[in-house]
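Milestone M4 deliverable, item 7.
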Amino acid sequence: MPLLVTDYSWTQTDSMVYVQVPLKGAKAGDVDIVSTDEYVKVHYPPYLFEAFLFEPVHDDRSTAKLGDGVVVISLPKRSSKVWENLMITTNDKERKREIRQQALMKYQEKLSAESQSKAEKKHAEKKYALETMMKLEKEERESIQKMKDAERDKTTAELAAWQLRQKQQAEDEEAQVKVQSPSQGYQSRSNATGVETKEPGRSEQRRNNETKCKRKEVDLPAPRLTGNINVTFTPRVFPTALRESRVQEEEEWLRKQAEARQVINADVEELKDLKEEHRNPDWLKAKGDKYFANGDYLSAVNAYSLAIRLNRKTPALYSNRAACHLKLRNLHKAIEDSSQALDLMTPAVAANAVARARASVRRGSAFCQLQLYAEGLLDYQAALKIEPHNEALQADVQRIRDIIQGSAANTDTQGDA
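Output delivered:
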């Protein structure tokens, strides 16, 4: 049974009532305060102070301040008049129980409304951030498309101008050839002294050029012969006892990895304009890793996303992008990418054990940041099963367990109060 606090004090003005309750050495985090328009409660085990107010107050404007071993509760009066007492003087326990129950119900409704308001505000903020991000990405895509179109139009115009010049030059040469006499091998002209000399005509120059070109073609070496080189590999040997052998799973994993390296979606229309290196998933992954190391997480996400569009079978791309989403606080996307990476890392073998542990930790971290501690604990335990001697993982698992147990203990304490 709680001990009732009797050494409280109170003062009043025409519009306010101030109540001071000593905390008796209790910490601020252990004090539970409930305030409504007719009831005030301060509970810090094993002590309890409750007041059935003499007159109603404005609950929405009431405040409570903790400090120097005392809590000061400020209650704005609804009517500007002096109270005879702080509390009602009735000894009717049924009446007090009714007031207490109504006050607690109002307080719970108030907390529920505040929680719902916070959730709606948080949802609206997330929605606004997502819409803003989508708008920025759309503008960026449109800007890139405009640059591509402008570059394409410029290149097309330059090509058309070059073709027109070539055509005009060919027509000029053909016109000059027609002006000359077909049988004329030399043209006559007068030099500065009036003596007429002869020089080779255009037809003769053209024949000389053709002769030189033919001579050069004759001097070129013959093309090399083509052929195929057969490459064989020795089978991989797994040093594992026969009763514990997982050769079949290991071979399946290696086959999937080989297929993943060969699958490239080169038929995506909008990717055909990219450079050859930009259509290489390995090059893009290395670029994303470099961006991540430099703290440019948004650029790393773009690099990993383009690599995933080219090759959707590589789990490392999803796992690395999940790490970027964790840094950017895109927690739901981090969970989605980590789950996709874990789905691709099947069967579970020693070759992908480290990668599976890393993806599990990233998904568990995202769950915990969303306050889904039970789901996060499962992922951390899965990673700890792979690396049982990892002290950091052991500490994280224990910390999550303490949070879960602390939440349950707090719930029980509030129910008792």
